Amino acid sequence: MFLPLFPPKDTSGRLLQKIPVNARMPLHDDLLLNGYYTTRLWIGTPPQRFALIVDTGSTVTYVPCSTCEQCGKHQDPRFQPEMSSTYQPVKCNIDCTCDNEREQCIYERQYAEMSSSSGVLGEDIVSFGNQSELAPQRAVFGCENRETGDLYSQHADGIMGLGRGDLSIVDQLVEKHVISDSFSLCYGGMDFGGGAMVLGGINPPADMVFTNSDPIRSPYYNIELKEILVAGKALNLNPRVFDGNHGTVLDSGTTYAYLPEAAFAAFKSAVMKAVLSLKLIEGPDPNYKDICFSGAGSDISQLSKSFPPVDMVFSNGKKLSLFPENYLFRHSKVRGAYCLGIFQNGKDATTLLGGIIVRNTLVTYDRQHEMIGFWKTNCSELWDRLNLSPPPLPLPSGLDNTNSTGTMNPTLVPSGSPGYNAPGEIKVGFITFYMSLSVNYSGLKPRMTELTHLIAHELDINFSQVHLMNLSTKGNDSLIKWAIYPAGSANYMTNAASTEIIHRLAENRVRLPDTFGSYGSFEWSIEPPPKRTGWLQSYLVIVIALSVVLILGLSAFLGWLIWRRRQESPLPYERVESVETVVLEQELQPLK
Questions:
Q1: In degrees, to the nearest 5, what angle opens at C-alpha 281 toward C-alphas 276 and 285?
Q2: From CA 448, how far away is CA 468, in angstroms rounded?
Q3: Start and end of every Peptidase A1 domain (predicted)?
Q4: 251 tagged catalytic
Q5: Sign of the C-alpha dihedral, residues 586, 588, 590, 592?
Q6: Are the C-beta atoms of residues 107 and 121 closer than 8 Å to each other?
Q7: Residue 179: which of 419, 361, 408, 19 has the closest Cα?
Q8: 3-class secondary structure, 322
Q9: % the chain with pLDDT above 90
Q10: Is the pTM for the entire model greater than 0.70?
Q11: Do 56 and 137 contact (CB within 8 A), yes or no?
């Protein structure tokens, strides 16, 4: 059989190529409760976890550094470069801005709401979690030394920059040829939160609506918006109103939508005419003049009966239909009341479309073909809607492939299963993990028993299962290695028990009092039950054999002793059967 020298061609004449893998990652938080959506990234070796805001308007990914002089208290501990064996600072070069000593590259970013971030640039291994087909990659990121405004006060740790630029995480992965030049975001709907993100390409649904996105027109992800319809009627506007300044920009890091002055006035007027049956009320915050309505009811599935449909029409004639949840937010003080989530963009001529516009919408940023696609869907069911198998649900680690459990996919045992391992299950001998604390040794030592009890409580296990393996300190920071052993006298944990423990560790659900300062757990590892070495097995065989020989020898010796004693004993009397058989004893005769 002869094989062709060249790969087959498709019908278009292009060589068939292997499609790069992608990173499928869950989104967390809620657009209106938190003001953003976050995903999880792990940086360094061992990995340090961070909750980062997904932001298409930023071009740098950055996290607070352990050396930060002005950083707020965030969700996770700060990044510790000295704890990562793979971290390297980006040295000063002609392609970057250098520090005053001209030793290391630095970055600085300022945002419209007057917040800012600045720090140094470093390079390390970045991991994307267990749902990702994409292996961990080296990438450049910012290590913050100063943050102000909302960046200082927010709960999230930092920003994941998805914009166009050399430092963007997307650009870096594309340059390495590990993903195609595309990514997608899907935000959850009103009252649901969460969502999904894909770094890399996907097969777009047949009815996805695309519009052009010109990278030369603006450094941001712009779309060609030409018209807005409210209740089926076009707003009386010049189409050029949506093309001022940066044009119409799609920004995932912005919560609401902002229109130029003329466009907002027309939109507000059209909506108010369409909701005459509702009552106009004051907004939840007296400092803002929100436009709010009461009387629509609390069931969001029925909002379309009270509020008009809105359509955005692109230059190619395609339309993106918006549901009420795409331009309204709940009134926080009045039940059944809603407020407009679209505002005037001051005197700025840019049309800025934030996350509210694309709730329950899959948005694909096809940078390779300079297009952005929209597809209305339920983002909590995205994989089913795309006819994709859901991401694997192994024990969550988020660790890189160097972790000993990186390729383990244990069978998940239902809760309440008996304490034995079914065929195919993995026997878990014990679980180890590291915990960092901003407490020095003298302050931590007298509280170790308290800390052990707290960990047992947070992991929902017995106090006796938590063992301290190692404790090291440096200045005011401590690093502890813990081990979780099976309960009682068991030799291993069930998959159900170990899965629950690791879920709690990976999701950072171990909460400690503020008196322990900043803390975090990372680098969990599954260890099998201890195995006997070959020498130990041989030793046991010899011991068992000698024991058997000794027992047999003692048994033989005791048997011989019993036999000798019986030989030396007088014969026993025979049992008398009857009186007649008795021989009468003769009387003694006197001696003669």
A1: 145
A2: 9
A3: 37-375
A4: yes
A5: positive
A6: yes
A7: 19
A8: strand
A9: 55
A10: no
A11: no
496: left (phi over 0), alpha (psi -120 to 50) or beta: alpha
Q: Which token pair is 302?
A: 């029925």
CA 498 to chain centre: 18
- As a whole number of Å, the end-to-end CA separation of the chain is 130
Residue 418 CA to residue 408 CA, distance in Å, equals 22
Which helix (H) or strand (E) covers residue 444, if one does?
helix 441-444
User: Looking at 251, 366, 400, 477, which residue is catalytic?
Assistant: 251
| Nearest alpha-carbon partner for 291 in 275, 304, 310 | 275
Residue pLDDT, tens place only, 413-464: 223 333 333 333 456 888 988 888 888 878 888 888 889 989 988 888 988 8
CB 225 within 8 A of CB 241: no
Helix axes 448-459, 495-506, angle to 10 degrees: 110
Type of residue found at 412 = L
Which residue matches tokens 């039940």?
335
* φ, ψ dihedrals at 553, nearest 5°: -65, -45
**Measuring CA to CA, which residue among 86, 61, 82 is closest to residue 144?**
61
Task: Please name every residue paired with 338 in a beta bridge, in sequence order, or none if there are none.
Answer: 293, 330
* Six-digit token string for 126: 């970045």
Tell me, what DSSP letter sits at residue 168? Answer: S
- CA atoms of 131 and 505, how far apart (whole Å): 17
Q: Dump the DSSP string for 188-205.
A: --TTT--EEEEES-----
Q: Which residue reads 């195995």 in tokens?
A: 531
CB 32 within 8 A of CB 204: no
Residue 275: burial class (beta carbons within 10 Å; 0-12, 13-18, 19+)? middle
123 forms bridges with which residues in the sheet? 88, 140
CB burial string 176-195: b at 16+ within 10 A, e below: eebbbbbbbbbbbbbebbbb
Q: Is the peptide bond before 46 cis (omega within 30 degrees of 0)?
A: yes
Q: What share of the chain is helix, strand, coil (3-state, %, to 5)?
A: 20, 30, 50
